Amino acid sequence: MNATRRHFIKLSAGAGVAFGFGVRSTDLFAKKSMKPLRILILGGTGFIGPNQVRYALSRGHKVTTFNRGKTHPGELPNEVEQLIGDRNGQLDALKDRQWDVVIDNPTTLPAWVRDAAQILKGNVERYVFISTVSVYGEPKTGPDENAPKEQYEGADPYNETLEAMKASGYKTYGSLKALSEKETEKWFPGKTLIIRPGLIVGPRDETDRFTYWPVRIDRGGEVLAPGASGDPVQFIDARDLAEWTIRMVESGETGIYNATGPAKPLGVGGMLDEIKAALKSNARFTWVTEDFLTHQKVEAWSDMPVWAGKESGLARAKIDRALSKGLTFRPLAETARETLAWFKSLPQDRQSKLRAGLTPEREAEVLAAWHKQNM
Asked: What are the b/e assignments for 135-161, b being 16+ CB within 10 Å?
């Protein structure tokens, strides 16, 4: 995994619509499950977790969360049973309890799966592990679920820590996730559901991945657009991912699934045009070649979020299996408008410091250099 992608990972640690964003039933929330399930969510207060909680409750399930109680305290609905602990050795709250399924959201380290599984084995029927397409490394073509995964090259994966992974520049992120997948299958053979999302976007994404584009396009004027209009992009709204995960749990599904969108191939130009239309913006896109951006040290993923640049294989993941199991997508316009509304609700000092994308000053510099070269 190259430095650009590691930097980007660091930033991250409906009705039928244009561009094939699929069909999303408007009554998904209204339907109750035939059999209420007891669902344990490890995490539950970050990005996708609250959406899982809300959707599961709406469908009649009983939800328990397990976390440190430090992220967004007090936000979970009163119906949720909240267990306090830490994946680093403080798991007593999980002992002598039974659930139908556990959803593991935050895990990167194999030891975290091992330690939780030792307690939960025999007390949980199925283990759902939220992984990542980063397990594929830097594929040259769009990976399906059988594509080769990154290989761990460290001394002992069970001794890895989040601090060590961060200090390494996230070099081991994909391989540790791959090993964590294996750990779930080791402890829960035949009872494991592994979901590999691509770029997760939408309201409450504190990394500003994707958010950069609605914010920048809403500001209007001349907007630097990266590469070529047809360069592929893939992403999934956190709410679509969370809701599909709960439906997969209800169906008793197991196996491995890539989970990203849209349903049909989408280029970065189509994405930008759709966001512009949704926001009724006066933005004007100036397309700047990949070679020029490289010369200007403007990086895909981080400086130009969502756009994969030379690593286009990352934006071509095969999602046929997930689509066959009912993965649906809300309209891109909805995601764009609601992401922008969420961002504008944040304190002004937070709004002034986007965590991904070019600053206005840097964008202006690159555009000026591009126009000068092409006079």
From this structure: bbbebeebbebebebbebeeeebeebe
